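INFO  loader      accepted 1 record
INFO  loader      residues=142
INFO  predictor   begin
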Amino acid sequence: MSIKTQLRVSEHPRALLDTSVVVDIDSIDEAELPVECSISTITLAELSAGLHAVMDSAQRAARQVALQYVESTFQSVPFDSEAARAYGRIYAAVRAAGQKPRGGRAVDFFIAATALSRALPLFTRNAVDFTAVANLVEIVSV
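INFO  predictor   done
INFO  writer      dumping tokens
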């Protein structure tokens, strides 16, 4: 932990980072992030799948390095039975908002459920993706 991180005072001392934040971590000012950042195991799954989404070996190697950095830097929070139950609440909120909770956006909602189950704010680069659940999970745009 850097001295800068130790001295930083944040409105959110702990938070869960969405995959969008993790992917852009090098371009985000450290002062915008909580002191203690964690990620969902769903984010690890997305990053692991991303390795196989490219055919170029140089890109794949770069993504492998990024994945290893994320694994060694952030504590991962499991999508466990508490998160699964929280997902039910997330699902209901998304449906009530007239949106589809399944399909490609389901991964976002699994991450939101992880945050909800741990009572953590969710830091994201795509706050609009989480408007339907903002009454359940504090969404912080960075």
